[in-house]
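Technical annex, item 7. During the second reporting period the consortium partners agreed on a shared format for inverse folding records so that results from different sites could be compared directly. Each record opens with the tokenized structure and is followed by the designed sequence. A conforming record, contributed by the partner at site C, is shown below for reference.
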């Protein structure tokens, strides 16, 4: 009992001297626990918000990648269609040139035959 009184008296005389496991904040500010709990709760809420935002952004990135892949496939299909149509157009052009050349040759042959 005597030592407890001496310890309390020495604590009153030397407020800066603490035992190893004592926390000075609780002696000076009894609301520190409430403040620390509130700050901890705010940090947890901020972490949850950040995690939710990260998940949302991940979903958005995945959606954009999926749309990008779909657009790449549609572009490849359009390019294939364009190549086929170019080939057909080139084939038709060559055929038209051959027909024109044949027609010109026939007209010359007819003209030459009429002059003889």
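Designed sequence (site C submission):
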């Amino acid at each position: 009992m005597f030592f407890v009184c001496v310890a309390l008296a020495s604590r009153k005389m030397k407020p800066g001297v603490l035992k190893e496991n004592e926390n000075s904040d609780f002696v000076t500010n009894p609301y520190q626990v409430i403040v620390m709990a509130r700050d901890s709760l705010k940090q947890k809420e901020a972490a949850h918000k950040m995690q939710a935002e990260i998940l949302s952004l991940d979903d958005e990135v995945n959606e954009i990648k999926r749309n990008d892949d779909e657009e790449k496939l549609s572009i490849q299909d359009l390019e294939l269609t364009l190549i086929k149509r170019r080939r057909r157009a080139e084939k038709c052009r060559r055929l038209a040139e051959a027909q024109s050349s044949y027609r010109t040759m026939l007209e010359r042959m007819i003209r030459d035959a009429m002059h003889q």
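The first helix runs from residue 2 to 13. Helices lie at 2-13, 24-28, 32-115. All partners now use this format for quarterly exchanges.
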